[in-house]
Design a protein that fits this description.
The structure is a single chain. The chain has about 475 residues and is mainly α. It is built from 22 helices and no strands. Helix content is about 70%, strand content about 0%. The chain has one domain. The longest helix has about 40 residues.
Amino acid sequence: MVTINNELASKNQSSTLSKLPEPKHFQLIEKTYQNNAKSDYTEKIRDLGNEFSYAHNSNYYWSNPELSLLYGTPIYDAATTSQKLALNHLYWVGNYNHTAVSEATTSIYNMVTSGVFRAVGNYETLCRELDFETEQESYHIRTFQRIGFKTKMAIVGKTILGNSLYGKSEQDSRSWQENLIPQPLREFFDSSQGTSPFATYRDNTLSAIAKTMLRDKKQYYSQYLQDLEQKGEPIPAPSDGLGGRIGPRYWLKFFTIHWGTSPFMACQYYSMRYTANAILKNQEYPYVRYYRELEQKGEYIPTPTAVSFYHLMDEAFHTTISQTIAKEMYKDFPKPTAYEKFISGLIVYVTQRNLLSGLSGVLPGRCVADDPMLMLFYYKLLKSPLFGMETKEALDWMEKSFCQEHEGFHVGLKYHQSLLELMQRLFSRLDYQWKINREMGIMAAGGSISKALQSNLKTFKQFSQSVLNQES
């Protein structure tokens, strides 16, 4: 059960207020914390997850049909009613599996940044809110995973798990390297014994650069990161979820040191957390509308739809905190140095490039170009018992869906434009950011159906050839 000691909260907050004049955002943080603590959305999410039965929810749409895998594509148009229901359910599963991984990352960075704010002092209410959010995320994650696993096993079993398709090509690549590159050189860059010497040197160099450039902020170095270092554990860096798409893990470790050292950079992290909040809201709010429509009509509300509804209610508090820190609280601290401006600009730039720079016609809400991994997923889905296609049939349908204009691309563009507006609303207010980041220029340029088709033609040609080579 999520609990809070309100008496202690009031006592500590009173102590905080006596130490410095209270900026307006302090009041907003206090109000958000108290409202979040009094809400019961987390408990409802937990209970819904514990009680979920796929059999009791399998004959209902969990959202409007457009939030379905392959919606608007030739494959979807030819699908049966039961297949369309399954595609609607699998979209929910995929979306919330991604959300679960991203929320696990959020929990880590809540601890990284709260360590900085505690070192600064006078932000205890904010830190308690971040601790409370971390506890809430653990309930969210377990519910998403429980519903997702039961649903996926009921629809496709284990047929689309794993990534064995590329196993042979990776082995061929390693064999080619072994024949051409001397073993000592291979071991330096790609050690079979674990972390390579090159990776160790690279990570140590990047860490030294960060700590040198932020040496005047070392008194704020997060206790969470200090504890990891004392245990000999590495700096955290996600490999999955939204964080994992931003860049290689060594860059994320580099960024983490900044977020865990400088008060300004700790605030800048919350513009990144808001990005995750906005992506979630963009895809989750349609579930909320659908929930309210069913409720108004007095119709059955599927459990996953209700989970989405209560989750957005919970996340509204988290989004408020992200916006408050990102837009207002960073002004509490000295203006960022040229180095801090550069790093914060770089972080948002690579996020635009790697996470928000494209458009999908087969997965509504995805703002990045369709890649071989997504094509592999759909290939396995079409060959699963849900569709039961042979190789040539699956590839023919995929080519029509990935490489020809259809309704799915226009639905994807609608969600892209909605997310772009949310992003511009925040980043246009951050005066320290680069112009291309304030305007979300890379993301805006990626909202093009013609560019998406051009990219997909090239990617699908390589993918289909890889599949045929594997099966020849």
